[in-house]
Amino acid sequence: MSRSTGTTVTRVIGISAALLLAWVVVSAFFVTPADAQQGDAVRIMYAHVPAAWVAYLAFVTTAIASGFSLARRHRTLGFDRVAGASAETGVLFMGLALVTGSLWGRLTWGTFWQWDPRLTTTLFLFVTYVGYLAVRNIDSDPQRRAKRSAVLALLAVLEIPLVHFSVVLWRSLHQEASVLNPDGDVRLDGSMLFTLFSGVVAFTLVFVWLVIHRQRLSTLQDLQQGAGLDAAIAARRNEVSTRSVGGA
Amino acid sequence: MRQAFAVARKDLLIEIRARLLLVRVAPFALLVLVLFAVALDSEPLILRAAAGLVWLTMLFSVLLLVQRAYDVETEDDALEMLLTSTVEPTQLFFGKLLAAFVQLLVLSVLLVCGAVVLYGATVTAGHLVLLVTTVSCAAWGLASVGTLYGAVVANMNGRDSLLALLALPVLAPVLIGASRATEAAFGSQTIDTASGWAWVALLAVFALVFSAAGAAAFGALMEPEA
Amino acid sequence: MQAVTTNDTAIRLTDAVVALGGFPALAGVDLSVGRGELVALRGANGTGKSTLLRLCAGLVPLSRGAARVFDLDLGDDRSAVRRHVGLLGHRNGLYADLTARENLEFTARLAGARDEDVEDALQRLKIDGRVASTRVRTLSAGQRRRTALASLVVRRAQLWLLDEPHAGLDAAGRVELDAILRDATDAGATVVYTTHESDRPGGEIPRTVTLAGGAVVTDKPSRRP
Fold this sequence. Notes:
The complex is a heterotrimer of chains A (about 250), B (about 230) and C (about 220).
Chain A: H1 8-31, H2 45-71, H3 76-108, H4 117-138, H5 142-172, H6 190-247
Helix pairs in contact in A: 1-6, 2-3, 2-5, 2-6, 3-4, 3-5, 3-6, 4-5
Chain B: H1 2-18, H2 20-40, H3 43-74, H4 78-83, H5 89-119, H6 125-153, H7 159-170, H8 172-185, H9 193-221
Chain C: E1 9-20, E2 23-34, E3 38-42, H1 49-56, E4 64-69, E5 72-73, E6 85-88, H2 100-111, H3 115-124, H4 141-155, E7 159-162, H5 171-186, E8 190-194, E9 207-212, E10 215-220
Parallel strand pairs in C: 3-8, 3-9, 6-7, 7-8
Antiparallel strand pairs in C: 1-2, 1-4, 4-5, 9-10
Helix pairs in contact in C: 2-3, 2-4, 3-4
C-alpha cells in the first residue's frame, strides 16, 4: 500500500506549524529581552510553557476520546485510535516539558528538581501515561484494547486531581519555601507575551498534525491486518477443500 | 453481597492454606524495614522517616499480594470459570478487595509493630484511634487500587513490572496521606493530631473514589486472553 | 437453512470468523444447535473445535459473521451470554489449595445452589469420602477432571460447553460422563462437547459435527446403532 497519511489539510497545518516554530525560535533568541531577575534563562519558557500546555491538552483529548469510545457501542475503534495517538504525543511533550522545566529550575532555583506541586503532579501524570501506553502495546485484540485503555484513561482522570490535591496539601505543611521566586512568575512585556502565545499556537498545530497522522497510520495498520485476514481465511478454507477430498 | 463474601472467603481460605502472607510477604516486608534502617544509618533520621518507611513497604507488599491474588485465578484458568458463571463483576471486585483488605490489615499491624520495635516509634493510647483509622482507610485504598489494576494486567505477559508502573503513581496520595497521618499518630513534632485527621479524610475520599471506580470498571477489565 | 423459531435455538452461527492474533481459527462456521440438543464436535487438532466452544461461551471476540446464543448477539456484547454457560476447558479451573468439596461449595455459593447439590455431585462423580476432603493439588489428573465435572453438575448451566471431557477419565468415568450429559439435556440444557473418542458400541450416537480448517465439513444427525 502506497497510501499517504497526508491530505491538503494536514499539509496546511504542517507548513503553518513549521513557519510559526521558526518565528518562535528567532523571536525567543533575538527579539525578546532577557528577564531582569532570571536573565537569559527566561527564554526556556518559550518552549516549556507551550510543551506543558500541549501535554495537558493531549491528556484531556485522550480522556474525552476514551469516554466516547466507551459510551458508544459501535465505531469505538476510531475514538480509541485518537485516544492512543493523543496519549503518545502527550507523553512526548510532557517529557519535553519536564526536561525544559528542570533545566530552567537548575538555572533559577539552583536545582534540577523542586518538589513543587505542579512539577510533582506532572511527573506522576507522565508515569501514568507511560503505563497507559505500555498496556496499549501489549493487547492484541483491538476491541479489548480499546475498552481496557479507555477505562485506564478515565481512571487517570480520577487519579490526577487526587494526586495534585495531596501533593499541594503535603507541600503546604513545609514552610521553608525557597528564597528564590518559587513560582517562576515573570513579568511579561508585549514581545514576550506575543512570542509565548505564538509558541502555544505553534506547538498546538504540531500536536494536531502529529495526532492526525498517527491516527491515520493506525487505521492503515488495522486495514492491512483486515486485508491479511481475508487472505488467511481463503487459505484456511482452501487447505480444507484439498485435504477433505480424501479425508471425509 | 452473597457472591462477594463467597469470593472473599475463598481467597482467604486459600491464603490460610498456602500461607503466602506469613511465609513470603511478611518476612519480605520486615526485611525491607531492616534494610531501610541500615541504609539510613542514623537513629534520629530513622525515627523521623519511620511512618514513611512503613507505608513505602506496604506499597511494595500490595504488589506482591495482588500478584498472588490473580495468580490463584489464572493458574488453572479459574478466572474463566468465574467469568462464565453467574457472578457479577462488581461482586467479584468487592470479594477480592475484601480479601486483600484483610491481609493488608494484618500486614500493617505487623509493620507498625516493626516500626515500634526497630525504629523506636511510640504510639500513645490517645493516638491509637487515629492510627487505627489511618491504617483501615489506607489499607482499603491500597486494596481497591491493587484489585482494580491487578485485573488490568492479569493474563498479560510481563505483568509484574506493569502492575508496579500502573498502580504506584495512583497510590501516591495513599503514600503521602498515610505517612503523614501515621507520623502524627507516632507523636511527631512536625505534624499535629488535627492535621493527621485531615490526612485521614483524604485517605477516606481516596478509598471511596477507587472502590466506586473499581465497581464500575471491573466488568470492562475482566476480559479473558483471546 | 429453514427458519427455526428463536425459542428453540440455543446456538446459531452464520459464517462466523474468529481471528486470534491474525490467524482465522474459525474461518466461516455455519452451525445451528437446538435447545436440549447434545452435539459432539470432531476434527483433527487445530481445526477450531476449542475456539468454537470459546466463541459460544462469549470468551473470544467474533471477527466477522453473526453469532447468537440464546438470542443474545455475541458480536454486540459477548459478556451477556456468560452467565448461562458452564465451561470445562482444557484446564479444570480449580483452586489447587482448596479441597474438592471446597471447590464445589464455592461454585454452589456463586450459583446459588444448595449444599445437598454438592454432596450429590460428589457422589455422582465418585469423589466423595476421602477424596472430597483432599486438596486438589494432591489429586490425580483423573480425579481433578472428575472434580471439574462435578462443579459443572452443581452449576446447572443452560449451555454446557466441554472441551475433551473424556480425556483423562477411566472407562467407567467415560460411561458415567455420557450419562451425566444425557441427564443434562433431558433437563433441558444444551450440551456441546469436543471429543477424539471413537463411538461407543451400544449407546446412542449423538449428533456429530466435524470441523476441518476452521469450518464445518460434515454434520450427521443422532442415531441409534
